[in-house]
Amino acid sequence: MPPLPLTFPASFVWGASTAAYQIEGAAEEDGKGPSVWDSFVRREGAVRDGHTGDVACDHYHRFPQDVALMRRLGLDAYRFSLSWPRVLPTGEGAVEPRGLDFYDRLVDALLAAGVDPTPTLFHWDLPQALEDGGGWMARETAYRFGEYAAVVGARLGDRVKRWITLNEPFVHMSFGYAFGVHAPGRALMLDALPTAHHQLLGHGLATAALRATVPDAQVLIANNCTPVRLRQDARGEADRAAAAAYDALHNRLFNDPVLTGRYPDLSAYGAADPSWGGLVHEGDLETIAAPLDGLGVNYYNPTWITAPASPDSGLPFDMVEPEEAYPRTTFDWPVVPDGLTDLLVGLASRYGAALPPVWITENGCAQPAGVDDRARIDYLAGHVGAVAQAMERGVDVRGYFTWSLLDNFEWAEGYHQRFGLVEVDFATQRRTPRASFEWYRELIAAQKARR
Ligand code: BGC
After folding, report:
1. Which of 201, 374, 377, 442 is the most buried (most CB within 10 A)?
2. For residue 274, how many other CB atoms are within 10 A of its CB?
3. 3 pLDDT band (50/70/90 cuts)?
């Protein structure tokens, strides 16, 4: 077993993350409205083997057991997401009290277990009724998101202080609206760009709503970030330009406006006009750049980029495989812990004083079924060590949330990719902590013993 990583500051927060559609199940219970994922999973061929999140981990009914697992793990905090259509079945208007009651009970159970609730307001399960009105392609969705934030802030804000607005707007834009491999399954390619602005505007409006409804709110956004790398054999000027273009789309499009109030140069994507053809209204960037208490960073692996092999690819880059033989997860993602150090150090040098404290809001890996998951321990130990190195190099990191507490519904892969510290048998709903659970428990216990 790899050695336990170095000492972290006493205030460092150890957590684990999940998301509503991936674990809750109870898809039609207690007045919940349909989300885009409830619709998407019913499309022929959309999800591997036709799996759905109808039941998932049945967390909606079994949450006390899951909170008991968190207590046993010694978690300081738990990042989960609220299902917008559980609270507002059509995304707006009448609140479903039973939906809000569920989150109320969950929050109380967490607090009783000594675990700080850290909800995310949107982890991709948009109410279907809002998608029918254009989804994130429509500016109105951003206003509805702000209103929803005010509803949950007013109900939970007496007990919940750390909030995350959006999860990975980049992945939602690209998988959900550009390529159509996630809900809502629209394949708009570069015409999906408005969903970036509208999600970010929604983030800004939700931030304001949380500040207005939650005393002492701490507000974050969770962005998927990747260090962009070049292969040894492709380091020409065109490759560097391709890498910069990819970095602009994946990282800067979502970090720059939030942290600096400006969009990056998107001319490589035909969006040279700073108002994006009138989409960005006066005052939007001020709303989006409202000061944050932290930047949530979700990291899985670096991305290798070259100049496009063919001029008709439609994109200013090609995504390629690295030449190094990195270990691979069952998702075939390369395991590259030093990518996380590079990423964090890079964020600090790019944004300087504009970078708020960083929180790793997701990091983890898919591994084969079974409880003897040594490869997951190696992954986690490597990445926790990578965080420690970034901190030694001056980056202000306040917490680490691993993805994920439980095996869950892994989007288009259904139940085939297992990210959990806890194995879930989906036929019986039996939960079995893995070796990585014990490893993380010991790590947290050792850090707490030094407090
Ligand atoms: C998402 C999670 C997902 C994980 C692994 C992240 O992009 O936020 O919902 O399960 O990656 O694919």
Report:
1. 201
2. 11
3. low
Q: Is there a domain that residue 437 lies in? A: no
Q: How far is CA 207 from the centre of its chain?
A: 17
Residue-wise over 192-207: b if at least 16 C-beta within 10 A, else e?
Answer: bbbbbbbbbbbbbbbb
CA–CA distance, 253 with 246 (Å, rounded to integer): 10
Per the omega criterion (within 30 degrees of 0), is the bond before 174 cis?
no
Instruction: For residue 449, count CB atoms less than 10 angstroms from its CB and return exposed for 0-12, middle for 13-18, buried for 19 or more.
Output: exposed
DSSP one-letter string for 246-292: HHIIIIIHHHHHHHHS----BGGGTB-STTTTTTS-TTHHHHHT---
> Is ligand 1 within 6 A of the CB of residue 19?
yes
Scan for tokens 């609220």, then name that residue.
82
pLDDT of 74-107, one tens digit each?
999 999 999 999 999 999 999 999 999 999 999 9
Instruction: Evaluate whether residue 384 is within a structural domain.
Output: yes
Q: How far is CA 61 from the centre of its chain?
A: 24
**Residue 20 near residue 80, CB atoms below 8 Å:** yes
Distance 281 CA to ligand 1 centre (A): 31
Residue 171 burial class via C-beta count within 10 angstroms: exposed 0-12, middle 13-18, buried 19 and up:
middle
Q: Whose CA is nearest to atom 12 of ligand 1?
A: 410
Left if phi > 0, otherwise alpha if psi is -120 to 50, otherwise beta: which for 239? alpha
- CA of 448 from ligand 1 middle (Å) equals 28
Indicate the top mutation candidate among 403, 407, 415 to test ligand 1's pocket, ranked by most ligand atoms within 8 A of CB. Answer: 403
* Phi, psi dihedrals of residue 116, rounded to the nearest 5°: -80, 120
**pLDDT band at 325, cuts 50/70/90?**
very high
Q: Kindly give the distance from the C-alpha atom of residue 237 to the centroid of ligand 1, in angstroms, as a whole number.
A: 33
The domain in which residue 169 lies consists of: 76-357+366-398
Q: Is residue 128 part of a domain?
A: yes
Domain membership flag for residue 280 = yes
pLDDT higher for 451 or 218? 218
Question: What is the tally of structural domains in the chain?
Answer: 1
Q: How is residue 143 written in tokens?
A: 């206003």
For residue 2, the model assigns a pLDDT of: 55
Q: Tell me if 167 CB under 6 Å of ligand 1.
A: yes
| Ligand 1 in reach of 403 Cβ (< 6 A) | yes
Task: Catalogue the active-site residues.
Answer: 168, 362
The whole-model pTM stands at: 0.98
Q: How far away, in angstroms, is 275 Cα from ligand 1 center?
A: 31
